[in-house]
Write a structure and sequence with these properties.
Purple Acid Phosphatase, chain A, domain 2, 13 strands, 322 residues, alpha/beta
Length: 322
């Protein structure tokens, strides 16, 4: 496997953190609430038992995508387009109807003047086949008109709200506007947290999945977000949410279950990559342009990470019953 292609920082890239050797145990940015064991660094795709029950739903996940045109060369040849092409090829063999778009949809300031190159062109084939994108706002998106132009943009399917919910069969998604949640003095913070708690409690869906742009747990440059951990994580635990998804850190990460919740980072959608170093609560992490696939079965979810060449880099299971 080409370490240059993967750009792993768990494995070959550890020297940037003062660590060496692909089998080295990494130091923990420890969290006392996590029951963890040391993570052995590996470039191998984790081996999991693929569920044998009927596949109920399949979703794709991208974040930190909207880089649009490469101004240096004046052509649409960014990493975003490579990931979009890989996702389109995957869809041809493994169809999905829904893409979770987890923020920073348009760089650098969320300007709708860039919507064509940042969204409509790279995902044109998927859009033409009826695939729907459900967007969350990222910190870059709210820099213009507080994100309202994106909220009202119909192909983002945001229901004209900065936080909202959408349901697909046995799966209900709860979409957050996390730029407000990471700021303790934000006027919308309390109302949004109350909405999340009440909406999750009222949900009759078998699977409840929450996503938003900012991370709660990350082994990358943003580490553990104290405000999100204090305010959002307890709601996820209380309401038995098994999967949380975010972007913000420009890499791919999957955690071990933390208080029953698996934390998935899919920030490799096109922007420049950020380093990542696995912690004791990390199941898998790689600094690589990529997208995620969420496949829902009766009592399990299969998570798959796929790089911009269409190759599988990660597989992991989320269990409905902890």
């Amino acid at each position: 496997m080409s370490t240059n292609r993967r750009q792993f920082l768990i494995g070959a890239g550890l020297t940037g953190f003062g660590l060496a050797g692909a089998g080295k145990l990494l130091a923990d940015r420890s969290d006392p609430s996590i029951d963890s064991v040391n993570t052995v660094v590996s470039e191998k795709v984790p081996t999991v038992a693929i569920p044998t029950t009927k596949l109920l739903q399949r979703f794709a996940v991208i974040a930190d995508t909207g880089v649009g045109r490469d101004v240096k060369i004046g052509r649409y040849e960014t990493k975003q387009y490579a990931v979009a092409d890989a996702m389109t090829r995957y869809h041809q063999k493994n169809p999905f109807n829904t893409v979770l778009m987890v923020g920073d949809n348009i760089y650098n300031k969320g300007e709708m003047s860039k919507i064509e190159e940042a969204f409509e062109i790279p995902y044109r084939k998927l859009l033409s086949q009826g695939v729907k994108f459900y967007a969350a706002l990222g910190n870059h998106d709210v820099r213009t008109n507080n994100g309202k132009d994106q909220i009202n943009y119909r192909p983002f399917n945001m229901q004209e709200k900065s936080y909202y919910t959408h349901t697909h069969g046995d799966v209900q998604f709860f979409v957050l506007e996390t730029t407000s949640l990471v700021k303790p003095k934000s006027p919308d913070r309390v109302a949004q947290l109350d909405w999340l708690d009440r909406s999750l409690a009222a949900s009759k869906a078998k699977w409840k999945i929450v996503y938003g742009h900012h991370n709660i747990y990350s082994a990358g440059v943003y580490k553990i977000d104290a405000a999100m951990k204090a305010d959002v994580a307890p709601i996820l635990k209380k309401q038995n949410v098994r999967l949380w998804i975010n972007g913000h850190d420009h890499n791919y990460q999957r955690s071990k279950p933390i208080d029953g919740t698996t934390y998935l980072v899919c920030g490799g959608g096109g922007a420049n990559l950020y380093p990542v170093a696995a912690q004791t609560w990390t199941a898998f992490a790689a600094s690589v342009h990529s997208f995620g696939i969420v496949e829902v079965y009766q009592d399990q979810i299969l998570l798959t990470g796929i790089d911009s060449k269409g190759q599988i880099i990660d597989r992991g299971l989320v269990n409905l019953f902890a």
